[in-house]
Write a structure and sequence with these properties.
The protein has one domain: Rossmann fold (3-Layer(aba) Sandwich), CATH 3.40.50. Helix 4 packs across helix 5. The chain has 230 residues and is of the alpha/beta class. Helices cover 33% and strands 28% of the residues.
Length: 230
């Protein structure tokens, strides 16, 4: 479980402070599919980065599985990120000189998993997302939809408790976007906790809960159930 209380994020601009988030209270329970929505500039991606410890709040409290993460050293924050979170971004962020298999293996190398295990798990994950025939291919030879499937497989490499996705279909045609969403929904049905930023109302409605932001503050929350049924 993740618990955020009174989360602020601000940046200094000369003598002024600019707030990206203001007083966010949010609990994320295991097995949920939470979607984060709001207009451009409302703080959606900033909130997701703080949830995933890619960025730190300026004020407030953050706890993961009951452990306070505020004030931890960078090395420990990196360990928590690698253990608990998988990330999927709009722009894929695959390493161009590595094959699909090698891209998926990479997070496991940081976790100290032996080479044979890394290779076997990466192949298993790529088969799971329908890419068993593309293991040796580099990103430049793959379609956008295929690259995003590799990115999803990479996000699952260390068996994280939380999968965080920032506009995961934003760079894809609608058909390929639906394929990615089908993968995410199936993962949620199997118990994966997913938090996804989207501007698309139809995609937002797939969540078991939708958090709406406005001007960096929590505007409303829509509850739909305990796990993705769509």
């Amino acid at each position: 479980m993740l618990t955020l209380k009174g989360i602020d994020k601000c940046w200094a601009r000369g003598a002024d402070s600019v707030y990206g988030l203001k007083g966010i209270d949010l609990d994320i329970v295991r097995g949920e599919f939470v979607t984060i929505m709001g207009p451009s500039g409302s703080g959606k991606s900033t909130l997701l980065q703080i949830i995933g410890l890619l960025d730190l709040a300026s004020a407030g409290s953050y706890a993961i599985e009951g452990r306070d993460a505020m004030g931890l050293p960078d090395k420990e924050l990196a360990r928590i990120r690698n253990r608990h979170f998988g990330f999927v971004f709009q722009r894929f962020h695959l390493l161009p000189d590595l094959s699909a298999l090698e891209n998926v293996m990479l997070p496991m190398s940081y976790a100290g998993i032996p080479g044979g295990q890394r290779k076997a798990r990466a192949a298993e994950l790529l088969e799971r997302v329908g890419l068993s025939h593309r293991l040796g291919h580099r990103p430049s030879t793959m379609s956008g939809g295929e690259q995003q499937r590799v990115a999803v497989a990479r996000a699952l490499a260390n068996d994280p408790g939380f999968l965080l996705a920032d506009e995961p279909t934003g760079n894809l045609p609608s058909e390929k976007g639906r394929e990615i969403m089908d993968i995410l929904k199936n993962l949620n049905r199997e118990g994966m906790t997913i938090v996804m930023v989207t501007h698309d109302e139809a995609l937002g409605a797939l969540g078991t809960r939708t958090v709406h932001l406005k001007d960096g503050a929590l505007d409303s929350v829509v509850e739909r159930g305990t796990r993705s049924e769509a």
